[in-house]
TrEMBL record:
Name the UniProt record assigns to this protein: Glycoside hydrolase family 3 protein
PANTHER family tied to this protein: BETA-D-XYLOSIDASE 5-RELATED (PTHR42721:SF3), SUGAR HYDROLASE-RELATED (PTHR42721)
Source taxon at top rank: Bacteria
Biological source species: Oliverpabstia intestinalis
InterPro entries linked: BXL, Fn3-like, GH, Glyco_hydro_3_C, Glyco_hydro_3_C_sf, Glyco_hydro_3_N, Glyco_hydro_3_N_sf, Ig-like_fold
Family under the similarity heading: Belongs to the glycosyl hydrolase 3 family.
Amino acid sequence: MDRAQARKKAEALVAKMTIEERAGQLKYDAPAIERLGIPTYNWWNEALHGVARAGTATVFPQAIGCAAMFDEEEMQKIADVIAEEGRAKYNAFSKEEDRDIYKGLTFWSPNINIFRDPRWGRGHETYGEDPFLTARLGVAFIKGLQGDGETMKVAACAKHFAVHSGPEAIRHEFDAVVSQKDLYETYLPAFEAAVKEGGVEAVMGGYNRTNGEPSCGSKTLLKKILREDWGFEGHVVSDCWAIQDFHQFHKVTNGPKESAQMALEAGCDLNCGCTYAYIMAALQDGLVTEEQITESCIRVFTTRFLLGMFDGSEYDDIPYEVVECKEHRNLAVEAAHKGMVLLKNDGILPLDKRKIRTIGVVGPNANNRIALQGNYHGTSSRYVTVLEGIQKEVEDDCRVYYAEGSHMYKDTMENLAWKDDRISEAVITAKQCDVTIVVLGLDELMEGEEPDQSNRGQAGDKASLEFPGCQQRLLEAVTAVGKPVITVVLSGSAMDLRYADAHTNAILQAWYPGAEGGTAVADVLFGRVSPSGKLPVTFYKDTSDLPEFTDYSMKNRTYRYMEQEALYPFGFGLTYGNVKVSAAEFAEQPEKEKPVKIRCTVTNTGKWDTEEVVQVYIKDWKSKYAVRNHSLCGFRRVRVKAGESIETELTIDPRAFTIVDEEGKRYVDSNKFSLYVATTQPDARSTALTGHEAVELRVVFA
């Protein structure tokens, strides 16, 4: 069924409703209309990295960990599995007449905001700091969720539109002031791609204002840009209770009726919250029209018809047994393998069980299930922590000693104890062992959304990039023993790793790796799999390198505009091989406004088979509007065996050669460019860390 057919059916059904019934359908918890055969429907569902908050489901690595794969095909495959499980659960729930929250087919994912500042607590829900990477992975995820069948498999929702990335504490009143250049160059491209390429069915507005307008009531964002400029035909949903913020915190309206008016006029069709309960009162006061109510109702029912909710769907027979089946769990572990980023390795990794008698596993995240799952997660029937993964891997080959070492953030573990009461146990363990693996970081209780019931009041933005003091002291105490130390970090964002970089033998960034992430960590540490993830965010040295959190200008932010050297750059990640782009050339002579094809040779002179990510960055040499440094414009994951050379091709979209001027206009403003082809950025720090230079290809248009 195409959109025109679905809309026609929606129009016919909506025409049978009273105006009160139409207004009632614009709330996220839409009531049944029994006389028309319409069951109750709750629009609120989540699928950030697996079907969330509705019981058992496959828990994939957190979104930021999936982004580190730099792999569109794998991302689409993951999303297809999520949709498969979502359908299976919906089919089973519906048969039980369970139409509760988190049990529908409209998933409020993906989060394609730009992770512009590492302090933002929700950054790990995103695909990182780069608009191009975010766009490509967002489109892949949307296509995987929605499928290409006769009916839509599930409906995706791109959020939070737009210019939304903290601070969490003031999000309900905050005005994100942004230049037209930054708006169109950085904050909007992923949403534009989601609409134009991904065909995303829904868009969710943010809590904040954008240049003075509440995002869920912004005519600039929702009417002009989204619908008029981009041709969006799906429905718009508010973030939860965001419309209430109009009068409570933004103070741009005088009450709920005016807030409902502002949102409905801007084209916000569906209200997650309670403000649209005032739509009928607003209608009686002449603030909104029947036509506006009807149009929004038609849009939301068009989505329901596209999903086959009334006419049936080819997905109605997906059985419940697909939920968390072995194949899906294996895919989650594979994704964790691909997303883990090896930041340092002096040769200690991979560990050889034949040469090790004792292994110490230390740290508050070593046996922490919460740190496996990230936020907006489902429930797994089995979890494998890092400790458990290592224990299973070595079994009878080595003795594993374990010491928690510290609390996640408190100075003591036991009441009445001395400060750092578990550190001596960790030191004893390190002295006892041939090598110690220190597992540090955060979890969803420490970084996440503005505190609410689901995260028990501990989450939010980070004050700094430093580890909690108790964890930092633990690391220093263990390294002081003088034996080999490997640092494993479970976090959703960049941490200050300068001490670990200077004092430990290896660093593995494992993100929040999914329910069985401990298996994946062990596989990487012991060489069953070569790490191959790349950083989707810059790892800065500390917060002194950053502008004010509330400053939405891109100046000195992210790898494209930063003025100082990164600790670990965007796009960086080591493998157990030694892979470089040894040659690159144009497959055909580049022409202006046409795709540019690059053919390159990728060579692994190392001793390990590995996957790698070929990356292409563009530098505009002439336009005054060009980004300060360079921009990612292409990437491809490849597999290269030890001692092997392979050839691969990448196609660079003509859009890569454009700039965005101060008025937000995009066009080609130069005829002289460089394309850098490598397994990292072409910056000096990446070159120093890998020992490989990027291959430069010059483009001069006539």
